[in-house]
């Protein structure tokens, strides 16, 4: 899946506004192109959620790095799980970890 | 036809310094280590609207830019929505108070998908000498979109003025292309903040847009 590879590469570039919107866009495409609709829908919502929190305000480097550190690994694991076609149960577990990291980062 | 030249101008330093003070007072300009939307790191964060939507900020910005345009014979002033909107409006208002009205216009980020499909709203028509404004220039994307739109409409860009120049390539490209460019505040790569200093056209100066 070309878009999945693109999503992984975009994730590796880091967490900043333009990139978050790009990842949200890729997730939207992937949600309609693959069977993992819920996973990509949730990821898209998370990227947009972070982008909206960071839009139109000063974003200290430390804050961006902290969120990036919290989120990159679980997101990478989820993308890899989808790439390697793990079971739906494992995808759900990986997705839970992504959501948990998001909540830890912002709640 | 153009001619090779380098011209240096200065905006009113005292007024520019006041704009810098207001930018700091309103939180429009912050110092620290910030991640920008592009992912680049910067020692400064600038949010123009905090400055241009404050009462004194709007007035001072309008006044400094109006003074800068004294002999430009500009027919209209505007730029890309929404950063340029309060600036162009402030200049139009000051120009009225000063008895030398300069109407303003807005360049839409994207053309309307319905209705009149106008890309530019406001007081502009073919053959006008126009001034393009913006709150900040980084790589020049917004300013270039506005320039393209007004040139497409048959207007001549006589000046480009921004409040903050981040010196990340945008202003340099404009100057190289022959546009008369002025910034009020300069955020230099060294981290230094200067005011009322940078205003120059280098290289081939386009005929008809020579500053005063």
What descriptors fit this protein?
heterodimer, A: 107 residues, mainly alpha, 83% helix, B: 212 residues, alpha/beta, 6 helices, 30% helix, disordered N terminus, disordered C terminus
What's the short version?
The complex is a heterodimer of chains A (107) and B (212). Chain A is mainly α and 107 residues long. Chain A contains five helices and no strands.
Structure description:
The complex is a heterodimer of chains A (107) and B (212). With 107 residues, chain A is an all-alpha fold. Chain A is built from five helices and no strands. In chain A, α1 (2-13) packs antiparallel against α2 (17-33) and α3 packs parallel to α5. Chain A is globular. With 212 residues, chain B is an alpha/beta fold. In chain B, the strands form three sheets. In chain B, strands 2, 5, 6, 7, 8, 9, 10, 11 and 12 form a nine-stranded mixed sheet that branches. Classes of the chains: A mainly alpha (107), B alpha/beta (212). Chain A binds chain B through residues 13-19, 56-62, 64, and chain B through 30, 32-39, 41, 45, 47.
| H and E order of chain A | HHHHH
- How many angstroms does the end-to-end distance of chain A come to? 33 Å
Helix content of chain A: over 70%
Oligomer: heterodimer
User: What is the approximate shape of chain A?
Assistant: globular
- Number of strand elements of chain A: 0
Spans of chain B of at least 5 consecutive residues whose pLDDT stays below 50 are 1-8, 199-212
Mean pLDDT of chain A: 94
Strand and helix map with partners:
The complex is a heterodimer of chains A (107) and B (212).
Chain A (H helix, E strand, L loop, with lengths): L1 H12 L3 H17 L3 H18 L6 H23 L4 H19 L1
Chain B lengths: L1 E3 L2 E2 L4 H13 L3 E7 L5 E6 L1 H5 L2 H14 L7 E5 L4 H13 L6 E4 L12 E3 L6 E9 L3 H12 L3 E10 L4 H7 L4 E7 L5 E3 L3 E3 L2 E3 L6
Parallel strand pairs in B: 5-6, 5-8, 8-9, 9-10
Antiparallel strand pairs in B: 1-13, 2-12, 3-4, 6-7, 10-11, 10-12
